[in-house]
Amino acid sequence: MYTLYYSPGTASMVVHLALLEIGAPYKLELVDFDTDAQHSATYLKLNPQGVVPTLVIDGKALTESAALLMILSERHPEAHLAPAMGTAERNEWMQWIVYLSNSLASAYRLWFYPGDLGMKEHTPEIRQTIQRKIEAVWDRLDAHLTAHGPYLLGREFSGADLLLTMLMRWSRNMPHPVTEWPALKKLADLVRARPSWKKLYEIEGLSEW
Q1: Are residues 200 and 186 in the same domain?
Q2: pLDDT at residue 130, rounded to an integer
């Protein structure tokens, strides 16, 4: 039994999606951001960074959404969230997950939390710089998917597509949401049509893309 500490629509989303794809038994524990529960003494014992997700596996609390996706994919190969170990496709899969985490998730952190840059609000120049950094990732991914899609690994869906679609969702209120990039929109539509995505929306009470 897994235990996932989550908050709706946050970085815990990809781990929740992976659990739904796998079909393994799990328990959800809501971390209520409205009450600052992520900084409570109890939660900080599990996750000293005070963020989600935290996934308890065999009594051990583990963090970092991309790492948790890789762990779950390896523990449940029957779910086909990752290509087989030792294959060229597996190498590419790991490359995309690290790229998305380093190049996109980290940029989003600066976009949503100007405090990480030591300021209460972004200056227009800094905000535009971060926006361009994120959109440069969309440009690269859209070109890749146009040539090799519809999924990151070509014709086969994988857990990397779950991570990408979660990150794409976060752009919905940006000046240029990701749905303006055709190949990325196609991938998002494919992932959003999956039963796991629909079930997560039901469980987490999400509505908007």
Answers
A1: no
A2: 97
Q: Which domain holds residue 61?
A: 2-80+196-204
Domain match, 98 and 121 both: yes
Backbone angles phi, psi at 191, to 5 degrees: -70, -40
Contact in structure between 134 and 104 (CB atoms under 8 Å): yes
Tokens standing for 56? 């308890």
Asked whether residue 187 falls in the same domain as residue 107, the answer is: yes
CB of 55 within 8 A of CB of 4? yes
Residue 54 to residue 51: CA distance in whole angstroms: 8
Output the pTM of the full model. 0.96
Average model confidence (pLDDT) for the chain? 97
Nearest Cα neighbor of 168 from 149, 147, 141, 150 is 141
The number of beta carbons lying within 10 Å of the beta carbon of residue 110 is 17
